[in-house]
UniProtKB/TrEMBL annotation:
Protein known as: Uncharacterized protein
Region ranges (Disordered): 145-228
Feature: compositional bias, Pro residues: 190-228
Species this protein is from: Prosthecobacter debontii
Keyword Transmembrane helix: yes
Key words, A-Z: Membrane, Transmembrane, Transmembrane helix
Lineage top rank: taxon: Bacteria
Length: 305
């Protein structure tokens, strides 16, 4: 190699080296031009991508704002629904308490009426015996008391002659004063009554059986003892007008059965209402509060990604 290069002239060697350098320079310039075009294309793509990123950021901000607004609206609706549900629950509890108080008051009234009816039915035999005794005493007093003879009016010629001589109205006959039967003076004027006849007293009625105590019935109070008979009933004359009229009606067993049926129905209704209230309270205590996402999934309001 050194022999042919040495054989070439010196200026040709420089020309050959310069041509090689010029070829490399042209290739480098072409490469720079190509790289410049690629750079311009990349810059255009970069600007487009930046615009797309800004647009996506704006869209993301709008989506976030919509999500926040939707979340606040759902929270407001949920609070409103919870408030309405609590109000409705309060109204239902108030109505239930009113029904419970009414049923308890009705039950107490029925129990009181039943107790009064039982006491009245227990006092009926004794009252009937007293009435019969008073009637027998009245009949004996009327039979022993003789009616007083009425004074006959005396009309003579003297009275007629006096009225004719005076030329006026006839003089009325003197009237004897009537005894006052409303006070003690009447009894003093009236003839003494006959001595009463001793009669065996009727046997006392058997006491009515006491009702069996029950946890649903209020305590029973014993009826007061009857007042003792007056000692003047056998001494003073008794007139039919002074005796009170006692209307005694036989007790009907159908009324007792109806009252017992109403009482049993009221007790069943009261027990059922208490059970429903207990179940509702236990359900409200044991019921777990679901998460917001669970509520949204159940309502189908979850945003799709």
């Amino acid at each position: 190699m050194q022999a042919p290069m040495a054989s070439l002239p010196e200026h040709q060697i420089y020309i050959f080296a310069t041509s090689i350098m010029a070829a490399f320079f042209v290739a480098a310039i072409i490469r720079l031009w190509l790289l410049r075009r690629v750079e311009e294309q990349l810059l255009k793509n970069k600007a487009a991508l930046e615009k797309q990123v800004v647009t996506q950021q704006k869209d993301l901000m709008m989506v976030r704002q919509d999500a926040n607004a939707w979340r606040s609206e759902m929270q407001r609706q949920f609070d409103l629904f919870r408030h309405m549900a609590s109000d409705q629950l309060g109204v239902e509890e108030k109505r239930f308490n009113e029904l419970l108080s009414k049923s308890q008051r009705r039950e107490y009234e029925l129990l009181t009426q039943l107790d009064v009816t039982k006491q009245m039915s227990a006092e009926l035999p004794e009252a009937k015996a007293r009435i019969l005794h008073l009637e027998s005493l009245l009949e004996k007093a009327l039979a022993n008391q003789a009616p007083a003879p009425a004074p006959a009016p005396e009309s003579g010629p003297s009275s007629s002659s006096d009225s004719d001589e005076d030329g006026g109205l006839p003089v009325p006959e003197p009237v004897s004063p009537m005894p006052d039967l409303s006070g003690p003076s009447g009894f003093m004027i009236s003839p003494p009554p006959a001595p009463p006849v001793e009669e065996p007293e009727p046997p006392a009625p058997a006491p009515a059986p006491l009702p069996v105590p029950s946890p649903f019935f209020p305590p029973k109070f014993a009826a007061p003892p009857p007042p003792p008979p007056s000692p003047l009933a056998s001494i003073l004359p008794v007139t039919p007008a002074s005796l009170p009229v006692l209307e005694t009606a036989p007790m009907d067993d159908a009324k007792f059965a109806e009252l017992e049926q109403k009482l049993a129905a009221a007790e069943k209704k009261n027990i059922s209402l208490q059970l429903v209230l207990t179940k509702a309270r236990s359900r409200s205590r044991t019921k777990t509060k679901p998460s917001p996402r669970t509520r949204l999934v159940k309502r189908g309001l979850v945003l799709q990604a």
